[in-house]
Design goal:
The protein has 4 domains: about 120 residues, Gyrase A, domain 2; about 35 residues, no CATH class; about 240 residues, UDP-N-acetylmuramoyl-L-alanine:D-glutamate ligase (3-Layer(aba) Sandwich), CATH 3.40.1190; about 140 residues, Alpha-Beta Complex (Protein-Tyrosine Phosphatase, Chain A). It is an alpha/beta fold. About 35% of the residues lie in helices and about 25% in strands. It contains 18 helices and 24 strands. It is globular. The termini are far apart.
Length: about 575
């Protein structure tokens, strides 16, 4: 019998299990009755909560090989909640294994002291007053804020104001939208930002690349978690917030804000499985679906109708649909679309070369697909899908159709407004496409786009991070070879070996290329993505097409290509 506590953490916002903050852990079990363990843990946890005078919603979730266990808690005792959860785990473990629990971490005195040290009555009073006034608050370890955007005001946790001295009427919300999915998140956020600016908003975005308030980049890096959301919403320049949210941040901490006007899920595919008890695409769909918990009855949830698993998840969990549903689809004959129209849901369609807005029997042509630069006259179907999702999201935010048309038309998808996603360069008559596609789903979309464009010869540069499994590397390479390349450049990504040996990943890719029928002369091993780019520029001739999957050194590659134009 084996029992392993893998991770114990705070949940600071709406999450996979509940709308409220709390504590959760993953427990892996081998040859142990899961139900017997959960029964013991729940009993010990309830006894501890009763002893501490705490009320909570207790939850658990089974997954292959283990279980998530946790409960809700007030914002001023989340660290203590983790300790209480761990104490209940230790007591249940001792019962199962018939030994003695650790007295240092399970004693009532220890837990009571933890709660006493962490408790903050001033914080709870402010939260209670904020809820009563209907004012949005954000809280983290260091700061507390009221309101959003231009009306937001922030105080240190150690120096909170007296709620009776505050004029809560001075604080108000701004429109907030969450965008998530396996692929298309960053492009959709930036596309929606273009629409918001066309509507006259000083909009801000968070993304996996940077955080930007109005036209000022506050910092570069991955800001797709709750910390980035709070930073942006507290910025006084921002009139509308577009938040890219990734699976990791939502599973680790939950959402950074509990009030949003719209949310979109672009798609869900096999990627980053095996963490936090998320082992299947169906479970990953539930993780992406956390964004729906931020919406109220007036909010809009935008779903990709071409993703059957996504649609089915919300049918089975319709309690998570808090407001209106909007679907988008590349296929007007999709049966899900037809069913949605009979239920009076809004649907955004690609039909007869146009983007249409449909509801029940009403059909309105919004704009031709060819007026969307990133659609490449329909060749880039993944960007048509992104654009349709943005249409539904923008309508949910109350943005006018004229602004949507203008914003989509102005979004070029180049290195300025969408760096690393579908960026084109023309060099000496050859066409180069730079993209960040890093999983089979996104790479398939890019390869389909490239295959729809004429070329005398084709080259692809690819490489993979070391935390990908051999199976992942095989699948990605198989998709890349569908492009029928005349040359494959395999780039070593030394900064992302992540436990692999130097040369190990290029060797795997090369072997698969040879097995697929390519010759030694059609394969080049590059020491880096930049080195591979330089080789590709030297190789390319007039009317060739070069696809560079730049997973590293993106800025250096852009700078180099600019010198060759």
């Amino acid at each position: 019998m084996e029992m392993t506590l893998d991770d114990s953490r705070r949940l600071t916002g709406p999450n996979l299990f509940t709308d409220s903050p709390g504590a959760v852990m993953e427990v892996y079990l081998n040859n142990i009755d899961r139900q017997a363990f959960v029964y013991a843990w729940r009993n010990y946890l309830q006894d501890l909560l009763n002893a501490m005078g705490m009320e909570a919603e207790i939850f658990h979730r089974y997954f292959d090989g283990g279980v998530n266990i946790g409960f809700t808690a007030l914002e001023d005792r989340l660290y203590s909640a983790c300790e209480i959860n761990e104490a209940a785990f230790e007591l249940a473990r001792a019962e199962i294994f018939k030994d003695t629990a650790n007295p240092d971490t399970t004693s009532m005195e220890y837990l009571a002291n933890m709660i006493w040290d962490e408790s903050n009555k001033d914080l709870l009073a402010l939260i209670q007053a904020s809820n009563k006034a209907g004012v949005t608050y954000l809280v983290d370890d260091d700061e507390f804020s009221l309101g959003m955007g231009k009306t937001s005001k922030t105080w240190p946790i150690a120096d909170l104001p007296d709620p009776q001295q505050l004029d809560f009427s001075q604080f108000s919300d701004i429109p907030v939208a969450f965008i998530t999915g396996t692929n298309g998140k960053s492009t959709s956020v930036r596309m929606a930002d273009s629409v918001a600016k066309a509507a006259g908003y000083d909009s801000g975005i968070t993304s996996t690349d940077f955080i930007r308030a109005a036209d000022e980049i506050l910092d570069k890096g991955d800001y797709s978690g709750p910390g980035g959301a709070r930073t942006l919403i507290r910025n006084n320049k921002v009139e509308l917030a577009l938040l890219e949210v990734a699976r990791g941040g939502m599973l680790r901490r939950g959402l950074g804000v509990h009030r949003a006007k719209a949310a979109m899920i672009t798609n869900v595919a096999d990627d980053h499985l095996g963490q936090y008890g998320i082992n299947t695409v169906a479970e990953l769909t539930g993780a992406k679906g956390i964004v729906s918990r931020s919406l109220d009855k007036d909010g809009t949830l935008v779903l990709n109708a071409d993703d059957e698993g996504l649609v089915e998840y919300f049918k089975k969990n319709n309690h998570l649909v808090r407001g209106k549903l909007c679907y988008f689809s590349l296929n007007p004959n999709n049966p899900i679309v037809k069913e949605a129209l009979t239920q009076n849901h809004q649907v955004i369609l690609q039909n007869n070369g146009n983007i249409e807005i449909c509801q029940h029997d009403n059909v309105e042509v919004l704009m031709p697909v060819n007026d969307i630069p990133t659609a490449l006259n329909g060749a880039a179907q993944h960007n048509v899908a992104n654009a349709m999702g943005v249409v539904g999201l923008s309508l949910g935010l109350g943005i006018s159709k004229d602004a949507i048309i203008k914003g989509l038309g102005q979004f070029k998808g180049d290195v300025n407004d969408n760096p690393g996603r579908g960026n084109y360069f023309d060099i000496n008559g050859a066409r180069f496409l730079i993209d960040f596609a890093h999983n089979a789903h996104s790479l398939t979309a890019v390869v389909n786009t490239v295959s729809a464009q004429p070329a005398k010869r084709r080259l692809i540069m690819l490489g993979h991070a070391g935390d990908r499994t051999d199976r992942d590397i095989f699948n990605l390479t198989e998709v890349a070879l569908r492009m029928k390349p005349d040359m494959v450049v395999i780039a070593e990504i030394e900064d992302y070996l992540r436990g692999r040996e130097l040369g190990e990943i290029p060797a795997l890719i090369k072997t698969q290329c040879l097995d697929a029928g390519l010759s030694e002369q059609q394969i080049h091993i590059a020491t880096s993505c930049l080195d591979g780019t330089k080789f590709s520029v030297d190789w390319a001739q007039k009317e060739d097409f070069v696809l560079l999957l730049a997973l590293d050194q993106r800025d250096q590659i852009f700078n180099y290509l600019e010198t060759k134009i």
